[in-house]
Amino acid sequence: MKHARRTACLLPFVLIAACGPQPAKPAAPAPAAEAASNGMAVVTGTAPSGSIVALIPAAGESPLPDGPAVMDQYSKTFVPSVLYVRVGQPVEFRNSEDMGHNVNVTRRGTGAEVFGVATEPQQKYVHTFDRAGQYDVACDIHPGMQALVVAAASSFVTIADEQGAFSIPNVPAGAYKVALTFEGRTVERPLEVKGPRTDVKM
Ligand SMILES: [Cu+2]
Question: At residue 82, what are phi and psi to the nearest 5 degrees?
């Protein structure tokens, strides 16, 4: 994520350079361009351990990423072990090895089943999470295969660690809502993000 955001920020400059001496004709300044001039912030703070902390731009949620998020199965392992996705973004659960698996997804906290499917070799199953939350992923053929999907309404998201600390890097300065989701409940409050560091206590 960190790398992708940096790349996105550099892109306008790359494009201008690639255009050579032609006058650049920037349209209305993109949020990323404003962010580049205002600087990026790291947002730190404390929240209940295990809670999801998401920063939602006050101007509206940023567009969904292009294409699906992917959680793969190979070497009897879910890859990655923790996958951050946006609510409404399709997620591909793939099986990339010659061994049958399955994907059982339950909502953390309630344990409610979201879906359970068999994933045959080289097959995939697509699911779109429509609610923010943490979802446990398991293959009951191989008890060691476990993973977590974190679905959030923002790309600026993390989970508070065992001490309750959290840190979200590369956040463009500006007005946000902080959404804290813990045990199925979400509370929100406004937050003004300023560089280089904004500390928030929930
Ligand atoms: Cu398996």
Answer: -130, 125
